[in-house]
Design goal:
Elements: H1 56-64, H2 84-95, H3 117-122, E1 130-131, E2 137-138, H4 147-158, H5 168-174, H6 183-194, H7 214-226, E3 267-274, E4 283-284, E5 295-298, E6 304-308, E7 313-318, E8 323-329, E9 336-338, E10 346-348, E11 353-361, E12 366-375, E13 378-385, E14 391-396, E15 402-403, E16 408-412, E17 415-424, E18 429-436, E19 440-441, E20 443-447, E21 467-471, E22 475-480, E23 485-490, E24 495-501, E25 509-513, E26 516-521, E27 524-528, E28 534-538, E29 543-545, E30 556-559, E31 565-569, E32 574-578
Helix pairs in contact: 1-7, 4-6
């Protein structure tokens, strides 16, 4: 049976979300779909659901269809919250999906012997789990099913195409609690609104984190069945197994094979920007095109800034309204004059500037841009703060003739650490790490010359985007994706230690996040801890694509405020989000 042709639950999905007030309160009059109720005389009754109960007919109808069932003591317990495991069971019974009995679990907190395991396995592509801090993937089966959980599950099951970011400005205007909707759920809520599936409450709230009761679930299911126009069955046809929310009397048979370790979840991938051909087009994401992304950062509001080095400009994906704009172009506003002796002014003109690297400082919520300046006899590494105004934040003037490039930019309590300037001495190229306070000139703190830095490839220093760093008070950890090397640089006294070298993997992108490094190879992302331990964070085989376009290679890597992974996929010319 196609999930796009389900028999009840998904016909009009969430068209009565505005029913979800307290169970004892009168139903809000919000839309024509709320004006009718089952006309049949209840054929199944429960001792705790009198005929005067507002949901008695809904409950009876759903119980007669074997979608919801009471308890052995004859009660329905209409005020009980619906757990995530129970809602998984309800989805299976209402949609006609088949419960999957497997000898392993996709979630670390669900055992194969748990009564709800087959139901959860059947709906794992529709009710996703959660990634914990230690890397485990859990389902939270006993936690309440939330309204946004239900929205996501039903929109997926209805088969709506969520390959492009929906217009979130609509739901931002509709719901006063828009900010409370989880970032990964906003696309689905927007799609549900645009398709008339969600109407919200009369107080202009969506209440995404609110749970639902069993009475409300019964009402939702009946309404979806009653107003469906493409199928009129419920319960997936002639089903005989009731969807019971209580464990069966006996446990399932022990698997013949030993239980496997928890398997990685299927992570959905959204295309946020691009994916419709190469170009340099601003505007709504439905028409915006990407030419190139040479560097990328995400701010606390999940706006994405990306650099097109050849076009000499920084573009911005505005998360609040789903549009792309040119944020900053390298123009005369970048011109800067500097005097080291208070008399002679050295002018740095935008014509000779090449943008190299973006950085984001969460401490002051500012975006920075590292620029290489090369015009004989003046060479420098210039770090500009782009917000709120363009201004030089810190600069590195090499001791000898050099061009200033940026491998990494990292912020710490001590200021900013950056690397990439190389200098020419007797035709020899040398990599340098600088440290400086914002607003002043930086000092060299490590270089290949004094064996306190190792960015030295084949006798010649080369700029590379495959490097990032974590700057602490007296230590800088650097992961070089070209060599697969994790190094620790002690600043005072200077000392270099190579922690580990990963010879077996070729990396395509590197990013530092929350005290760890993340490096991609193809579509797989690895996590590298500061002690050098490498583990698989996301296996590329576990990615599912809403627009059907797979990722072959991750060229840029970052994270949003929710911990979701933001990547640039150059093959598809698209910025995409891996939802965790």
């Amino acid at each position: 049976m196609s999930v796009k042709k389900i028999t009840s639950l998904l016909v009009t999905a969430i068209l009565v979300f505005s029913l979800f007030g307290t169970a004892s309160a009168a139903l809000p009059g919000y839309g024509e779909e709320l004006q009718n109720a089952p006309s049949n005389t209840p054929t199944i009754t429960f001792t705790d659901v009198p005929t005067t109960h507002w949901a008695s007919k809904y409950i009876s109808e759903m119980a007669s269809c074997k979608v919801l069932e009471g308890y052995p003591d004859g009660k329905f317990r209409p005020e009980n919250q619906v757990s995530r495991a129970e809602f998984a069971t309800i989805i299976v019974k209402a949609s006609g999906l088949q419960a999957k009995k497997v000898n392993y679990s996709s979630f670390s907190d669900v055992k194969t012997t748990d009564w709800y395991s087959p139901f959860i396995e059947a709906v794992k592509d529709y009710m996703t789990g959660y990634r914990t801090a230690d890397g485990s993937y859990i389902f939270n089966p006993t936690a309440p099913a939330l309204r946004e959980d239900i929205t996501v599950a039903l929109v997926k099951l209805k088969g709506y195409e969520v390959s492009r970011l929906a217009n979130q400005s609509i739901i931002e205007a509709m719901f006063q609690d828009y900010a409370g909707i989880s970032e990964a759920a906003k696309d689905y809520v927007a799609v549900a609104v645009e398709n008339g599936l969600v109407s919200g409450y009369q107080d202009e709230t969506f209440r995404p984190q609110a749970s639902i009761t069993r009475a409300e679930a019964a009402t939702l299911l009946w309404r979806a069945y009653q107003y469906g126009n493409d199928n009129k069955g419920v319960g997936g046809g002639n089903q005989t197994t009731p969807a019971t929310p209580t464990p069966p009397a006996t446990n399932p048979t022990t698997p013949s094979q030993p239980q496997q370790p928890s398997q990685a979840a299927k992570f959905s991938v959204d295309t946020l920007v691009g994916g419709i051909g190469q170009g340099d087009t601003d505007g709504p994401v439905s028409i915006a095109k990407i030419n190139a992304v040479n560097s990328m950062v995400v701010d606390k509001n999940n706006n994405i800034y990306f650099l097109d080095k050849d076009k000499k400009k920084v573009r911005k994906f505005n998360n609040s309204n789903g549009t792309v704009e040119t944020f900053k172009a390298i123009d005369s506003t970048f011109n800067w004059g500097n005097s080291s002796d208070g008399k002679t002014v050295t002018n740095y003109l935008f014509n000779y500037m090449t943008p190299m690297k973006l950085a984001y400082n969460v401490a002051n919520d500012s975006v920075y841009l590292g620029i290489k300046y090369a015009s004989s006899p003046n060479y420098a590494s210039l770090l500009y703060q782009l917000t709120p105004n363009v201004q030089v934040s810190v600069y590195g003037i090499p001791k000898r003739v050099a061009t200033g490039t940026f491998d990494f930019i990292s912020f710490s309590n001590q200021g900013v650490i950056f690397s990439g300037s190389n200098r020419n001495y007797n035709d020899h190229y040398d990599a340098v790490i600088y440290s400086g306070q914002l607003g002043g000139q930086a000092d060299e703190i490590a270089s290949t010359t004094d064996n306190t830095w190792v960015r030295y490839i084949g006798g010649r220093y080369k700029y590379s985007p495959l490097v990032d760093a974590i700057a602490l008070d007296n230590q800088v950890y650097v992961f070089d994706g070209n060599e697969g090397t994790l190094s620790k640089i002690q600043l005072f006294p200077r000392k270099l230690d190579t922690i580990v070298t990963q010879d077996s993997i070729s990396f395509d992108a590197v990013a530092a996040y929350n005290g760890k490094f993340y490096a991609s190879s193809g579509a797989t992302i690895y996590e590298v801890s500061l002690d050098g331990r490498l583990t698989t964070f996301i296996d590329g085989k576990d990615l599912t694509y809403k627009d059907g376009n797979p990722i072959k290679k991750i060229s840029q890597l970052s994270f949003d405020s929710k911990g979701n992974v933001i990547v640039y996929d150059d093959d598809n010319k698209a910025i995409r989000r891996i939802n965790l």
